[in-house]
Amino acid sequence: MKTRHPAGVPAPLSADEWESRARACVPADVWDFIEGGAGEERTLAANRQAFTRARLRPRVMTGTGESDPAINVLGRRWAAPLAVAPMAYHTLVHPDGETATARATRAAGVPLVVSTFAGRTFEDIAEAAEGSPLWLQVYCFRNREITRQVIERAQRAGFEALVLTVDTPRLGRRMRDVRNDFRLPSDIVPANLSAGTGDYSSPSAHSRTELDPRLDWSVVEWLRSLSTLPVLVKGVMTAEDAALAVAAGVDGIVVSNHGGRQLDGGQATLDVLSEVAAAVDGRCALLVDGGVRRGTDVLAALALGADAVLLGRPVLHGLAVAGEEGVAQVLDLFVDELTESMMLTGTPTVADAHASLLAHPGAEPVVTPAPARMPAPVPLVERPAASGPATLRRERLHTSVCDPVLDTMNFLNEVTGRFPDAVSFAPGRPYEGFFDTEELFGHIRRYVDHLSARGATPDHIRTTLFQYGPTAGVIRELIADSLRIDDSVDVAPESIVVTVGAQEGMLLILRALFRDARDVLLVASPCYVGITGAARLLDIPLTPVEEGEHGIDCATLEAAVLAEKAAGRHPRAFYVVPDHSNPSGTTMSRKAREELLALAARHDLLIVEDSPYRLVSPGRQEPTLKSLDHERRVVHLGSYSKTVFPGARIGFVVADQQVVGEHGSSLLADELAKIKSMVTVNTPALSQAVVAGALLTSAGSLVAHNEVPAKHYGDALRVTLEQLDRQFTAAGLPERGVTWNRPSGGFFLAVRVPFDVDNDVLLRSAKEFGVIWTPMAYFYPGAGGERTIRLSFSYLSHPEIEEGIRRLAAFLCAETTPATERDA
Ligand code: PMP
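Predict the joint structure of the above. Result:
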């Protein structure tokens, strides 16, 4: 880097050093205005964290030589894939403001996006830029005339593109500015807006009165009617909006969350980039901003599909420290760092930056494959046996043993054990009133009679019950019969594998379907921990797809699939609990099921359907995905834990997919059985006999077998909802932001609360109020669910439910009472 620092002190060596240097030059409230984000600044922080998480995969011996960071965007050559992001009032940190910035961008050969709220006139800025590209950031005012005038003035000054900001129906709640009651100094004014068009001294107040909160995509057409300049939209954060932007005919999209200054709690821009890139699919220019602080960050963004990045705050840092010179040095720093990282990764040009440059492109998979690098050698057994009992080191065990997913249930059990008098809405266990020890013997007897009626000799029956058995199970015909009777699912017994609970089925399916680190499992989120845990054990990356009130939304899922594909990964399967899901209680509509199957066909995706609560729920049920599946896209998991009893540990997988290879074809079930032979050898015959006997009591129908339990659980759900309606409402909780959903069956429902819940809050609830529940965050493979709790009502009697909800209401009242009222 050239050393041309004017102050005689060494130039800062990184964007972070520029930032600390700048802080000393800028008044505190102005610093807060520039640096601050909305709300708790979670999104602000997420932007930078996303880049910090990204890991590059250097390729060596590529013969690259010098890398060239130059690119062409909208017909112009840029010296590097960088431009200066639109930021209001550069004059806040340096009297030359945007003219100094423009001189520096000209020197660096990159564009400057000038804000509608620039502190210097467009004409002055254009003069300083000397023909170097200038773009205009456009805010749409309620009074469109103002916008029109701004655009015409910029166009006259020679600006080359319009960048419409679309994420600002009003300014985000920027707490630092609220606290500081931030006003612009009197000499800071928008140089390109005529006086009398508003009071600009409070940016947030101004945004509320002047900016048009009702924009829709037709505004793109309106801009086109005003000017022939290319139109870009800035502030797109989803594939859906990117697709709409492309359909509206934009020339470019800037993925941006306004530097974390608008919606707090939104995703990091880097995390949504591949989703947007997939939707754009090269049909317009794609830029991104937010949190870029190093050359490697730029490279990561390019790898995920961006054509270029916009630099924001670092430019103002340079400007604050050393005016034009400072900006020039910051830009040089980024160009140098980028060029260096391109060379070190074997990337000759920007066009060569592909997703394969990143170890985990895009949103970090929650479950990551084991590191390729071997851990430092640590003795497996720390101490030799001679010196005492062996001690194992945790870091030498598989990483899953340290995974919180595998710990959550232990914590719940521990809390339940410590507070035996608490009412617990935590366990998703069946009601024990249905269990009768004597019945077990009857079930086995009935199965033995069944075998003998079908011609089995006593010796054969003895072998069946006592010996190792066929890996795929001995009750497959009975299972196939019950699927036909209860679910209209017609599958051959050969496509069924009887497993030790659905849990083993999950493990087998994942082991069979996932081959390399690029194969990804998508899961509806929040999600049953059994599948996340199994993926963790097998080092299978998974990508959560957020569900809505009515379960998974196919557009969201499709965007996630596209994003995975764009990032060079292979979405193999999508796991979903379509009926009365654990944990949230949601049920997919018939239409959503059909859409899901169509989506699976479009993207060659398998669906893993897990539906343990369907037949223990009251009323008519939606058809299973498997019953609607005419293309064998659904692998169906069955569990008898709720419909018979969990102690039997019997489940099954329906895997009727053909597997073809060099040596002929087989069923996926055959392959699962091979794997099972090395996991549990076979499912215990005695347990299979008991479940078979239970099926035979009701002529093979689980629906008939579960008439009473389904009514019981339906009643428990109804009582829980009645108590919530009555007691929560009487306690005024809805007014305090407590809400709950209304599932139509299953064992669970979700209560949303206006505060974050974690293990400490749970402990307080158990200790001080005698009520236990599950933090919903346990079920989110990524972030999420912090303000939701899961209630399970299946295990409790009606009086226990009533008492439990009373305690829960008292607890939530205490938690939502402001400290001042509590003290009073
Ligand atoms: N899937 C879901 C969604 C569940 O909630 C449960 C049990 N809590 C299971 C599977 C477990 O099934 P099994 O007992 O057959 O392993």
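The chain has a mean pLDDT of 92.
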